[in-house]
Amino acid sequence: MNFRQLLLHLPRYLGASGSPRRLWWSPSLDTISSVGSWRGRSSKSPAHWNQVVSEAEKIVGYPTSFMSLRCLLSDELSNIAMQVRKLVGTQHPLLTTARGLVHDSWNSLQLRGLVVLLISKAAGPSSVNTSCQNYDMVSGIYSCQRSLAEITELIHIALLVHRGIVNLNELQSSDGPLKDMQFGNKIAILSGDFLLANACNGLALLQNTKVVELLASALMDLVQGVYHENSTSKESYITDDIGISTWKEQTFLSHGALLARSCQAAMELAKHDAEVQNMAFQYGKHMAMSHKINSDVQPFIKEKTSDSMTFNLNSAPVVLHQEFLGRDLWIKQIGEAQEKGRLDYAKLRERIKAGKGVTSAIDLCRYHGNKALEALESFPPSEARSALENIVFAVTRFS
């Protein structure tokens, strides 16, 4: 399947007739044996995180929150936004995605593009291949690398929109009228496709076959990861014997591949050799894994958490908790947390917090953080490299 065909079929893979289901895994014991010493020194409080992002944006030359503004303010998407307003008052998840794009208090939506720009500047121009010397460079970053950062963000936002498609076969009365969900699904597919089409056009303008192959490979990985989510039944977390190693493989596909291959593509655009490209890939991979695990841990460590707040049963703390607990005890805990046929997340959360899953997830987050820092050691010391290190510190310290 070529890149164009992939983009055309992506909504179906992501569940055009339904939203991706949670993975329900019953893993085998595959514990983390060697986390290593942690080198971080800062916490991911909103204030600190915003400061890290703000300082990094100054280094790359402009706020990455405006990178995709040309696309997001286009006439086509403005028309879609007008249609989204009709969903106000409904329970369609596209509204939540739209609010997140406007009110991104954690400055995390633009993280992928920011990392691509920072690692581009940290690597600089190739010292061996001088064929890029005639390219436009602003603040130490080639214009084609800035375009790549925008493309990465467009793909990420498009996939967020597509993930908001509702499974109409699993609607409940509390979700609202069927026609509202159907209309929201149509808008989600249309707007996601529009963003992916713009990303496809931007990739073509880069005129680099290997970069197109890398981003197409990232999308194929993501499709495979999301397809696994869609094809996993609700009962699989009891019947399947899947551990943290498989969780890491699937999480890389669905959350890490885009950033990892975008970092590698940025090095390819600057004509860096295979070793530098691999180190950029490793940083993007482990940084994305740390960021995902940090998000997974938040519902279990926040001082104020709503009793009704749900969490993903495929999150790292839950998967690790199952491993340490054992299959039989996990099934028992699930049964004890059921009330009137519905899962009491508040009760289950307390059981998980009392086990080893949360602390082990934090250790795993720091393990991937250390791996990301190790990859950065191959880059020369610079402000950009320090900013990349600070991003790792910010997502891997929890106190």
Automatic annotation (TrEMBL):
Give the residue spans that cross the bilayer. none
Q: Which SUPFAM superfamilies match?
A: Terpenoid synthases
Lineage, top-rank taxon, reads: Eukaryota
GO MF annotations in UniProt? prenyltransferase activity
Q: Keyword Transferase, does the record have it?
A: yes
Name the Pfam families on file: polyprenyl_synt
Keywords (alphabetical) are: Transferase
Biological process (GO) annotations?
isoprenoid biosynthetic process
> What is the recorded name of this protein?
cDNA, FLJ96928, highly similar to Homo sapiens candidate tumor suppressor protein (LOC57107), mRNA
The beginning of the lineage is:
Eukaryota, Metazoa, Chordata, Craniata, Vertebrata
